[in-house]
């Protein structure tokens, strides 16, 4: 199992808090959340607290301080696969520990058993791939990769060059699927770039992929800034005009929201998240780290 973390009421006494001997990995948490009976139980308990499940998770995360994270950090400096994982930003790994500890406590309070089989795969059949953005080998890929990301995500921006280089080097062996995960799903500004790019892909898929570098350079998103970046990427004026129109943006906002809702339902809670041949990896990756993951997930001949 590969895990890489690079991404975004009153405190009880530490002695009263639950500290498992070791934390479950991302795939265990996502598998647990992916079971309908578990999700129903968790939602019922959170409703009894007057909270949504997402609000409950955030509440538990806020209760976790650095001293609690330190209990697990030292033993997780290397990947569970046995080789060192490139750590570019330590705080992001610590945030991953915070998130997993929060879910572990929630499962205990709701009397939900954590799926412990770290060798299991997350099935693509649980993900709606209809009309998904994709590129590469769709017939017999060695690797199928699903990426959840947002242009307005600093860690996604950091990870993008490595992802692009992987697609360039291994393109004939990879089916790469992109799914939207807006960090600000409740605002039009937070949905704008993803919605516009969805439209560009629907008009001419090749233009979507050639525009990624340019759009990832943006840090302030508006119709005008998107138009300038698309123009710089040689997207035709008629496509730019159509895809930045109010009608088009509103239409594709719904597509983006559906991607986000689906992601939350299967346990994706931070970006970038990728699924490589059924294995979840969370966080920004260097090219070297990404290649190690590909080698570790290469199907047996």
Structure commentary:
The chain starts with 25 loop residues before the first helix and ends in a 5-residue tail after the last helix. It has two domains: 14-120, no CATH class; 124-265, Glutaredoxin. The chain has 301 residues and is of the alpha+beta class. A five-stranded mixed beta sheet has the order 1-3-2-4-5. The longest helix is centred in the N-terminal third of the chain and has 20 residues, at 90-109. Helix content is 50%, strand content 9%. It contains twelve helices and five strands. It is globular. β4 (273-276) and β5 (279-282) form a beta hairpin. α3 (53-62) packs across α5 (90-109), α7 (188-203) packs antiparallel against α8 (205-216) and α7 packs across α11 (246-265). Mean pLDDT is 85; it is low at 1-6, 8-15 and 78-89. Pfam families: Thioredoxin_4 (PF13462). It comes from Leptospira kobayashii. InterPro entries: Thioredoxin-like_fold, Thioredoxin-like_sf.
What's the CATH topology name of the largest domain? Glutaredoxin
CATH hierarchy: architecture of the largest domain: 3-Layer(aba) Sandwich
The global form is globular
Main sheet summary:
5 strands, mixed
What string gives the helices and strands in order? HHHHHEEHEHHHHHEEH
- Average pLDDT confidence is 85
Number of domains: 2
Percent of residues in beta strands: 5-15%
In order across it, which strands form the biggest sheet?
Answer: 1-3-2-4-5
Q: Helicity range of the residues?
A: 40-55%
N-to-C span: 20 Å
Judged by helices, strands and strand pairing, the structural class is alpha+beta
Evaluate the radius of gyration.
20 Å
InterPro entries: Thioredoxin-like_fold, Thioredoxin-like_sf
Protein name: Thioredoxin-like fold domain-containing protein
Organism: Leptospira kobayashii
Domain Thioredoxin-like fold: 133-295
């Amino acid at each position: 199992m590969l895990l890489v973390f690079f991404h975004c009421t009153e405190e009880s006494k530490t002695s009263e808090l639950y500290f498992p001997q070791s934390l479950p990995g991302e795939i265990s948490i996502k598998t647990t959340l992916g079971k309908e009976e578990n999700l129903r139980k968790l939602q019922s308990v959170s409703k009894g607290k007057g909270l949504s499940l997402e609000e409950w998770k955030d509440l538990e995360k806020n209760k976790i301080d650095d001293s609690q994270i330190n209990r697990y950090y030292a033993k997780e400096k290397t990947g569970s696969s046995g080789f060192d994982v490139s750590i570019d930003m330590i705080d992001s790994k610590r945030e991953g520990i915070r998130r997993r500890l929060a879910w572990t406590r929630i499962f205990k309070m709701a009397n939900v058993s954590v799926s412990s089989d770290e060798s299991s795969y997350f099935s693509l059949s649980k993900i709606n791939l209809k009309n998904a953005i994709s590129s590469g080998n769709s017939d017999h890929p060695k690797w199928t990769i699903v990426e959840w990301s947002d242009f307005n995500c600093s860690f996604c921006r950091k990870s993008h060059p490595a992802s692009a280089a992987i697609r360039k080097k291994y393109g004939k062996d990879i089916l790469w699927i992109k799914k939207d995960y807006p960090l600000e799903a409740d605002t039009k500004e937070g949905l704008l770039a993803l919605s516009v790019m969805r439209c560009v892909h629907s008009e001419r898929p090749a233009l979507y992929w050639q525009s990624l570098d340019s759009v990832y350079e943006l840090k302030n998103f508006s119709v005008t800034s998107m138009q300038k970046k698309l123009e710089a990427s040689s997207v035709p004026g008629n496509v730019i005009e159509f895809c930045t129109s109010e009608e088009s943006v509103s239409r594709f906002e719904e597509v983006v929201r559906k991607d986000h809702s689906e992601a939350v339902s299967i346990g994706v809670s931070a970006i970038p998240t990728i699924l490589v041949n059924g294995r979840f990896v969370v966080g920004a990756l260097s090219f070297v780290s990404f290649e190690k993951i590909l080698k570790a997930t290469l199907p047996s001949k």
